[in-house]
């Protein structure tokens, strides 16, 4: 066979003549130390892993495009937002990472766990990340509780086993988690695969239009493949033989040319506290009821290209809730503010301080990145500093960079109030969980009860009783059925 393969080299570009043996004195050794090729190869191998994500360690990435409709519902998109990507019918490249939350990098994709749904839009105005999940809500509403909820769900710090007793100890002291738990222990807690699940931004954002007016907005991705979930028995059969069925399904569908699609929809609310609602619109443990806040279609996402390297495009990709473009802004949601610190903080540690120079994370090639940020570990690119590279500060009378014009002025909400540590007023922890319970199909409700009973039966009796009490607050029948399954009394 003719030798048409590229010649193997070291990272220094030196052609390698022998990749089978190290340099030794004679064929039996001892080995010599000046063996640069061997040392480079083995020491690079020793450093092949970066720390896995503290949550969402297992995931899968694909690339594609988002096509905006130019409208939001029956209005021109400009009514609500000046974000350029929505203004006309047009395409924006996207990269998406689907994930599970609690397991490690090689864990089962059939686990009962929320699924991450993170989308990076590579827009004309730089990147916009929407970092969401498939369940529309979350366990907690204040970012300060995030390390605690995750510690309870992660393996025990001594036995390294996920323990229902630890999970329900935390949850039974966290009434706001009942809505999320009702989704999670139903079939929605194990989507059939990534293609057949929906996504939601969960936290509340703001749209800002050219007139500087803001509205509250929630984002939703509706799967065009049909929504399908698994029962625990179906999931158990899959994970008995395959821990990565969802990644495989997505990868193979794209290879076959069956490109999955999701339609982006938004719900819009005027930007105020809405005292008429029985919940706080900024509370991420709540859904905005669709009959009051209809879904308005915005555009369609199609995934049509697989990654070429898992480490570069999956391990090193970095999403964050602070990565917004002009026209999309933060709301006062205090959970969102906490998340926004956490993502880029962990990425500076996990990937490195120059993570934004990596091709998978930096904005599109044709979008200028002009900053005076310089140096740091693994820096290799220099951002545009204008015509005079000596000026790496601003302002300068000589050269350098200029601030953007008034059209990019940030939204300026007026805020006043006493600084405090306090819970929100309209907590209403049970009503939407009860509604969810009642709206399920019979088989979904049966599955929910079965899954809760299976897990709670491994817990101490006082936790079982506490959880039954919470479920009874959601819906009398809900509590009663869990109690019956556990063989305990509702009023115990
Ligand atoms: C205060 C609450 C939260 C905090 C502090 C937090 C923090 C984090 C951290 C530190 C990571 C790892 C990021 C990385 O290593 O690149 C992460 C990943 C992620 N989080 Fe959160 N999170 C919070 C709530 C949420 C919520 C409510 C959602 C869903 C709406 C969510 C969705 C995700 C997703 C999808 C990822 C994976 C991103 C990827 O694929 O790389 N998180 N989160």
TrEMBL record:
Which terms in the GO cellular component ontology are assigned?
cytoplasm
Question: Compositional bias of type Polar residues: which residue ranges?
Answer: 1-25
Q: Which residues form the active site?
A: 56, 133
Any idea which UniProt keywords this protein has? Answer: Heme, Hydrogen peroxide, Iron, Metal-binding, Oxidoreductase, Peroxidase
Q: Which residues bind heme?
A: 343
An annotated Gene Ontology molecular function: metal ion binding
Described function? Decomposes hydrogen peroxide into water and oxygen; serves to protect cells from the toxic effects of hydrogen peroxide.
This one is known as: catalase
Species of origin reads Micromonospora globispora
